[in-house]
Design a protein that fits this description.
CATH superfamily of the largest domain: Lipopolysaccharide (LPS) transport protein A like domain
Low-confidence stretches: 1-6, 55-61
Mean pLDDT: 79
Radius of gyration: 41 Å
Shape: elongated
Number of helices: 1
Order of helices and strands: HEEEEEEEEEEE
Largest sheet: 6 strands, antiparallel, barrel
Helix content: 10-25%
Strand content: over 45%
Structural class: alpha+beta
CATH class of the largest domain: Mainly Beta
Strand order of the largest sheet: 2-3-6-7-5-4
């Protein structure tokens, strides 16, 4: 009877031993998984410490204007207090941090040191923050109207840059200079409105017409 029971008891001990090994393996697996999870959290924490924080505010698109004026008149004086230029337009907006002014359909008067008045306009213009530069853009024109002993003269281009305090006008685009008896075309312009000296820089073409009597 004892010989018959020994195999059964041995089998039970073997089964218990295997069950113990299975539980120990499972426990080791759980401990290893927990250690890996802790390591992953620590690694993520160090990575977040080294990353720069996101900007608090992010804006897409052009900035909103600082202020807007409707149907206004603008007067700018020179350093000596004399009138530099005056302008009227239906709308003007100011850039919030660069400070320049964007003007729609402007009508300017440029006053030179010799007392002459030049009319300037375009589809829109940009006035620098210091008001020392007028950038006339799209169908730009600057005209001196005829007067006593004054011949009319007109400058036209896609873009003209006027510096009223210096009485100068320049352009990098194709320019037309029209006066009685002649029309000049060229690329690039350097003009002094006070001395009435005009230089077309390249590709100059001229057409002369007999003035009407």
């Amino acid at each position: 009877m004892n010989v018959a029971r020994e195999p059964a008891g041995l089998a039970a001990r073997i089964a218990a031993w295997r069950a113990g090994l299975g539980w120990q393996g499972l426990r080791r697996s759980l401990i290893a998984a927990a250690i890996l999870a802790v390591l992953a959290l620590v690694t993520r924490w160090f990575a977040d410490l080294g990353r720069e924080p996101d900007a608090a505010d992010r804006f897409i698109g052009p900035p909103r204007s600082d202020y807007t004026l409707e149907t206004f008149t603008l007067t700018v004086l020179g350093d000596d207090g004399t009138l530099s230029f005056r302008g009227e337009a239906p709308r003007m907006t100011r850039h919030p941090w660069l400070g320049h002014l964007d003007v729609e359909m402007p009508d300017f008067e440029l006053h030179t040191v010799d007392g002459a008045v030049w009319r300037a306009g375009a589809r829109w213009a940009r006035i620098s923050a210091a008001a020392d530069e007028l950038r006339l853009i799209d169908d730009a024109r600057i005209v001196r109207e005829a007067g006593p002993e004054v011949r009319p003269l007109a400058l036209a281009s896609a873009e003209l840059v006027a510096r009223p305090k210096e009485d100068r006008v320049s352009s990098d685009y194709r320019v037309e200079v029209a006066m009685p008896g002649s029309i000049l075309h060229g690329v690039g312009l350097d003009a002094d409105l006070a001395t009435k000296r005009f230089s077309l820089l390249s590709e100059v073409e001229a057409r002369y017409e007999q003035p009407r009597r």
